[in-house]
Amino acid sequence: MSAGTTSTAPTGEVPGQGGAPAPGGGRDRYLDLLRALALLRVMVYHVFGWAWLTVLFPSMGVMFALAGSLTARSMRRPGSSARQVVASRLRRLLPPLWVFSVVVLALLLLGFGWTPQGPWGVAGTLNYLVPVGAPPYPERIGSPSGVLDTDWARDGAGPLWYLRAYLWFVVASPLLLWLFRRAAWPTLFAPLALTAVFGTGLVTVPGETGEVVEDFCVYGACWVLGFAHQDGTLARVPRYVTVSGASALMALGLWWASGHQGDERWDLNDIPLAQGLWSFGFVVLLLVYAPVWTRLPGRLRRWDGPVTLANNRAVTVYLWHNLLIALTFPLLDLAGVGEAASLPAAFLLLWPLLALAVLAFGWVEDLAAGRRIRPWP
Questions:
Q1: How many domains is the chain partitioned into structurally?
Q2: What is the pLDDT of residues 199-245, one digit of tens each?
Q3: Which of 64, 137, 253, 343 could cross-link to 222 by cystine, CB 3.0-4.6 Å?
């Protein structure tokens, strides 16, 4: 499975629950800014489909690394057990997902009369509530002249792959952290080696199990890289070693991509090994040169509000943005917007729709995190 495709855009450890903590307490606004940029890049990609965006800024690798760092930090906190941390992460993740899934399933089952095929199809709908696997959905449903495009179910279910991968990473984190503390470098690079096996066709695992394995391999190194950032392992390596090593891996990723391009050419979402190598190297550079900002500096300070909003409502934004994009095009057709202007217009229309989604559903993130409920943080 690939990040950032339509069949595939997060404060805190999930695409977003609370801000990233700074070493001295408070929020690390640099990491908050990275998470907000990652979300923005995902949304731009989903509207315009520009393949080069996956090279410019590998959003999913960034989000998994930040989530891994915050998960490791929570597990290091005095008095916190691994079980408590895993339960806390899932408690923050699942309620916003349940709200989204209830709406999607109500539309599918009641609004459009869709029926899952067979007992496994019925059982598979539980993945909308606990995303351990891929949820079923119709490839096309509805009418081309309807309020929703006929691809809306696929678009709505697409982002759930990230939550599935996140869930498995969280569940595996106690074991991964145990391995990392005993063999840091083998644990860090093992996912990249496994990507060379499972992400190149050398070994193929069929079905949704294969999708889970591939996602785990491609982004596992970024997740564990978050551990290395959190405990200082990365900082202890001489900078010239990390920079040259990261650059070499990124170059290897681009070289591999150049010879294994699909229909979208430089879309790394379609080239797992290139995605894994490029994302890992890119995130290493972001973390090696990471400043510690307790507030955004200089001209960036004007974006403090949007960055805070993105971090406190990242799960909501991530879950709803693709479905809302699917809604924009029929609305633009009704308004008589021509095809030439449809993509920029869809991007502009997405923002008020997202604002409505944040107002309607975002408060669930506060409830799940045990925070005071705020309609607009």
A1: 1
A2: 999 999 988 889 899 999 999 999 999 999 999 999 999 999 999 99
A3: 64
